[in-house]
Amino acid sequence: AGLVTSVADGSVTVTATSGEVSDTAAATVAQVASTVELSPTTLSLTSIGDTATVTATVKDAAGTVMPGATVSWATSSSSVATVSDAGLVTAVADGSATIMATSGALEATAAVTVAQVAASIELSDTVLTFASLSDTTQLTATVKDANGATMSGANVSWGATGPAVTVSSSGLVTSVADGTATITATSGSVSATASVTVTQGAS
Question: pTM to 2 decimals?
Answer without folding.
Answer: 0.78
